[in-house]
Design goal:
Blueprint: E1 2-6, H1 11-24, E2 28-30, H2 41-54, E3 59-64, H3 68-74, E4 82-84, H4 88-96, E5 102-106, H5 112-124, H6 131-145
Parallel strand pairs: 1-2, 1-3, 3-5, 4-5
Helix pairs in contact: 1-5, 2-3, 4-5
This protein binds D-ribose.
D-ribose binds at residues 7, 9, 41, 64-66, 68-69.
């Protein structure tokens, strides 16, 4: 199960991505929000990322105006490796090398076509492991040090 969450600055982008996921037959949970609602991006990041860490979600897509605030928030949660992304190369390599479990994008930064390509690479690319596992383990160790 994939989770998707957004603040009020990325409602249209969220809809475009949800439509794309539906077309691909990918099951997802939409954590909101919709037109007329507002949420601070750290609250949405926490809501979705807790479910990633618990294992309820395999991966998540988080959206705010820039993608930056929500990615900074997500990366504060132990077990989250969130990549703020606006290009396809990074989307691919953050899976291959960082085993990213959250991708973040900005509704004021990327258009729907590029965002859907980024989502596809994020969902379809596996972690390479090997020497990259050692580095991901070091990220986890940094979390423990606080
Ligand atoms: C909300 O206006 C905006 O600050 C937020 O969506 C995001 O861009 C923060 O990083």
């Amino acid at each position: 199960m994939i989770g998707i969450g957004n603040d009020h600055a990325a409602i249209e982008l969220k809809h475009a991505i949800c439509e794309h996921l539906t077309e691909r037959g990918i099951e997802f949970t939409d954590y909101g929000i919709e037109h007329g609602e507002k949420i601070d991006y750290p609250d949405m990041a926490e809501r979705v990322c807790r479910d990633v860490v618990s294992g309820k979600l395999e991966k998540a897509i988080l959206l705010c105006g820039t993608g930056v605030g929500i990615s900074i928030s997500a990366n504060k949660i132990k077990g989250i490796r969130a990549c703020c992304c606006s290009d396809t190369f990074s989307a691919k390599y953050t899976r291959l090398h960082n085993d990213a479990n959250v991708i973040c994008m900005g509704g004021r930064v990327v258009g729907p076509g590029l965002a859907c390509e980024i989502v596809d690479l994020f969902l379809d690319t596996g972690f390479e492991g090997g020497r990259h596992q050692r580095r991901v383990d070091k990220i986890t160790a940094l979390e423990q040090k606080g």
